[in-house]
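User: Sequence recovery, please. Input:
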């Protein structure tokens, strides 16, 4: 990420069947913010006294504002709901599955001070929305917030079955508006030169079956430098960074149309780190993670696996992966062993690995042999140190972000192609000259780059480095394989359509 490299785990398993009888759920007991949990720790035990109800932040009104969306998790399809209203109650969701089903959402956490003045609810691990359900909406009489997003409370649901898969998947990444703390670093113009909302609106118009976010949501390290403070009350000072108001400013508000159009699978980025209590990592686990928590942060949570019909996503949390060292090889080797075990258990189905930091993405490449810079060495070494020594045959694709570019890379071997989508919001990085990257070796063991396609503009430096292009990626299922296209901010296609090979031993893509 240029200077940001040193600076979504999501995804989830769709349940294949749930009883069509009426279900009820008891709200999870509220808890106060516990001490920071050790890595991998789950939610704190229930039963503590709820904290006092806070005064809603400026701009929310006495009855508050609520946001609802559909997220794929390792427990299936969940409806999630966050509100600043003072009732600390959860609404009910109604959907059709033969007959109308009504399910009360479960309370996960209650307000903690002015930083997180929210009640968080979800449909819960025991009552995910089953495949085949339709017409999901929050019951108006159970919503206490004065304002609800999306308007009307209608929520998108999966369109696939247990024997099919999402037909169209849009991929976005690195979407936040960058406002560094260091005044010497340039601040992005969030009001006029931040493309995330136009991109999210384009994705919404395309109405994909699923949206995957490859990580990095919260870039407002110093909201005081923003030029859009007027539209984001409660997110105006450095002390507000990573607060709920800033989560809304950096993600929910610009993504509102997208969240109303498609379910999402969210992967954690390095900006959602564990550097301080109440920081971006705590916000991630409170609102967006696979397993929601009441106020703890883990550096290396286990992979989360999704089953989207016959497509499986396994999210490896690389938010804390060392960009330059290899000390964490054993940690991530265990993670990729879990990926391989899941893939081998469903050897006839496709698997995508989703990890924020790329395993094999080429950042720069010169003409001389070996003049190639790539990311991230520790992840590649970890794959080589798995029990299999590589990723399983049916791992068809690695999806990542982190580098603010769009790039497809393949090796024409058992190693899966790498698709990097980090071009959906933050300032763009320079990229490599693709012709220099091809025929060079990267990885452990070294493998020759067979094909490289980076979406770039004119050279921006001497020696030449190419500037990136804002946009997003799209995968379209096509007769047992996948077509890949890059879309500009307005949704128009830029460049060629590239098709993944069906071979599991010579994995590549061809463009036309």
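Assistant: Recovered sequence (512 residues):
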């Amino acid at each position: 990420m240029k200077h940001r490299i040193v600076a979504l785990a999501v995804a989830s398993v769709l349940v294949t069947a749930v009883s069509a009888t009426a279900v009820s759920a008891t709200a999870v007991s509220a808890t106060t913010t516990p001490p920071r949990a050790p890595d991998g720790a789950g939610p704190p035990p229930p039963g503590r006294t709820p904290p006092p109800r806070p005064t809603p932040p400026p701009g929310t009104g006495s009855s508050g504002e609520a946001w609802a969306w559909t997220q794929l998790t390792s427990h299936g399809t969940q409806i999630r709901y966050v509100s600043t209203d003072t009732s600390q109650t959860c609404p009910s969701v109604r959907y059709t599955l033969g007959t109308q089903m009504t399910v009360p959402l479960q309370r996960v956490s209650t307000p903690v001070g002015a930083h997180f003045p929210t009640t968080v609810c979800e449909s819960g691990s025991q009552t995910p929305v089953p495949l085949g359900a339709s017409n999901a909406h929050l019951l108006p009489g159970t919503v206490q917030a004065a304002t609800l997003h999306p308007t009307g409370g209608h929520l998108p649901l999966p369109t696939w079955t247990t024997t099919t898969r999402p037909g169209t998947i849009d991929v976005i990444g690195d979407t936040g508006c960058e406002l560094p703390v260091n005044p010497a670093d340039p601040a992005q113009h969030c009001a006029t030169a931040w493309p995330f909302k136009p991109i999210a609106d384009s994705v919404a118009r395309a109405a994909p079956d699923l949206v995957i976010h490859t990580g990095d949501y919260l870039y407002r390290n110093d909201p005081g430098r923003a030029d859009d403070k007027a539209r984001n009350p409660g997110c105006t000072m450095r002390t507000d960074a990573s607060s709920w108001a800033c989560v809304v400013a950096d993600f929910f508000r610009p993504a509102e149309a997208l969240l109303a159009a498609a379910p999402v699978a969210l992967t954690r980025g390095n900006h959602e780190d564990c550097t301080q209590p109440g920081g971006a990592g705590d916000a991630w686990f409170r609102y967006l993670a696979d397993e929601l928590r009441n106020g703890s942060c883990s550096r290396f949570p286990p992979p989360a696996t999704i089953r989207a019909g016959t497509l499986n996503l396994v999210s490896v949390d690389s938010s804390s992966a060392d960009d330059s060292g290899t000390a964490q090889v054993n940690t991530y080797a265990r993670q990729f062993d879990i990926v391989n075990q899941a893939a081998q258990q469903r050897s006839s189905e496709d698997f995508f690995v989703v990890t924020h930091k790329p395993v094999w993405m080429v950042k720069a490449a010169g003409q001389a042999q070996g003049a190639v810079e790539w990311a991230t060495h520790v992840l590649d070494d970890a794959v080589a140190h798995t029990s299999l020594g590589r990723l399983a045959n049916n791992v068809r694709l690695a999806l990542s972000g982190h580098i603010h570019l769009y790039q497809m890379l393949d090796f024409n071997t058992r190693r899966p192609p790498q698709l990097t989508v980090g071009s959906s919001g933050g300032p763009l990085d320079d990229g490599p000259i693709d012709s220099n990257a091809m025929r060079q070796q990267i990885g452990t063991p070294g493998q020759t780059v067979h094909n490289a396609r980076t979406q770039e503009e004119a050279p921006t430096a001497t020696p030449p480095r190419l500037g990136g292009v804002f946009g997003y990626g799209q995968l379209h299922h096509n007769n047992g394989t996948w077509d890949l296209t890059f879309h500009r901010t307005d949704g128009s296609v830029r460049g060629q359509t590239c098709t993944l090979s069906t071979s599991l031993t010579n994995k590549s893509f061809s463009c036309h």
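Confidence is low (pLDDT under 50) at residues 1-62.
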